[in-house]
Amino acid sequence: MPAFALQKITGVSFQAQIYRYWVTQFSQNKISPGEFLPSVRTSAQDFNVSLNTIRLAYEKLVEDGYVINRPGIGYIAVYSKDVNTGVIFSPPQKTQAFTPPLFARSTGFHQDPCDKSAFSFRLGAIDPLAFPWASWKRWNNASSHYQRELASAYQDPAGLYPLREQICQHVLLNRGIKAVPEQIVVTHGTQESLSLLTRLFLGPDSSAVIENPGYAGAWQLFHLSQQISGNRIIPVDIDNEGMRTEVLPAGKHTLCYVTPGHQFPTGVTLSQTRRYALLAWACQSGCYVVEDDYDSEFQYGTTRVPALKSLDNQECVIYLSSFSKSLGAGLRVGYMICPQHLTETITSLKALLDKGNSGLSQAFLTDFMLRGDYLRHLKAMEKRYAKRYALLRSALADIFPHSSLYPATAGLHLALHYNEPQPLAERLTELNTLGIGFGRENSYFSPSEDRQTSGVLSFGFGGINSEHLKQALALMH
């Protein structure tokens, strides 16, 4: 019987282990050319496996030229040169912890989808009733040849053309942006859009300018790129008017990431004066401005503020948005509005990475927008969120009397600059014991400060209904 015991090794079959056993016997000259291997039945008994497993292992030896099969006679070793095989299969020995390459290490940017707090102010959450289930069910039940085609074939990686047409109409009406379908690339959301731009633009001699504090998803992507290719990251402070354009860096730069409609995390709006200043600086520095308009469709002031992209007459703004805050992140549909000369390059990269978005979800969204249902849905949700916005805004001033609320008239969260006598970390722990949570603490980022020392405390009100909001505010008093 072979002095070798088969072992259950993930990814390594018994057949492969038996094959390797015999090759090792050849390499150690334990079987000479012309010798017979044990019969299939004998080997099956020795290894305690099926006859078929032995046959497959032997046929692999025949295929690789180690033995020949003489029907009715047996398998004969015929190799005529030294065999270099390495070692017999055995489970990997644990010697030391494996350290992946630096660029593959976890950035820590992933959001726990399960916030078990009784009252959650997590940023990015939306009303769980926001998704139009009735429309979704009706569309899915109306099965058609077109839907079957969408389910069985790849679509244009830039996105379905009818959806891009609807997006053009939508952004013109709601965000003041004039665009054509050829400028639009449909993505799985803002994070993918940012990833595509990072891959295309950031290299060894490039630089990314970003708000401080700012969105962790952008910070981490730029930092990951920095580890791989060495690009620079330049933080620019914000105040109550948004990014401080007067301290933008001189020289040539590559990308400038901003959230002008509802700065993340403070919620302030970039002033009109600074918008023009930012665009002028971008043209002078040869830099693309990446406008992340993640939740500015919900506005509560008397005057609606259009997107920064609406002022762009030099094609230096790349506009990012998605349907995650208006319909739900599970839909996984976002989009970019690019300068037209960039669209083909971005689409090619998108095709290389994932072949494009689901045609079914895009077709549903097209139909939903075409019927006017999406616009009606937005107005209804804005009315619902406006009540929570007003309730939260009026209460925070009383609950945190020494702190100052950042001016915000859009989006799904409010923020304040914490300045209470009780340390912020201690206050957060106290609120947590009352069942009041804020989700992960790394949803925004500053290069030198963490959330508990930066003084910014943000309250997302999208995912908490009005009744729960009232209860949470009462507990906080």
Helix content: 25-40%
Question: Quick one: overall form?
Answer: elongated
Instruction: Tell me the Rg in angstroms.
Output: 30 Å
Q: Average pLDDT across residues?
A: 86
Weakly predicted, low-confidence segments: 85-91, 449-453
Tell me what portion of residues adopts beta-strand conformation.
Answer: 5-15%
Structural class determined from secondary elements: alpha/beta
N/C terminus separation: 79 Å
Q: Main sheet, how many strands, which sense, barrel? A: 8 strands, mixed
| Main sheet: strand order | 4-12-11-10-9-5-7-8
| Number of DSSP helical runs | 15
Work out the number of β strands: 17
Set down the secondary structure blueprint.
Elements: H1 14-27, H2 40-47, H3 51-63, E1 67-70, E2 74-77, E3 119-120, H4 133-141, H5 145-152, H6 161-175, E4 184-187, H7 190-201, E5 207-212, E6 214-215, H8 216-229, E7 232-239, E8 242-243, E9 255-258, H9 272-285, E10 288-292, E11 317-322, E12 334-337, H10 340-354, H11 359-370, H12 373-399, E13 404-405, E14 413-417, H13 424-433, E15 436-437, E16 444-445, H14 451-454, E17 456-460, H15 466-476
Helix pairs in contact: 1-3, 2-3, 6-11, 7-8, 12-15
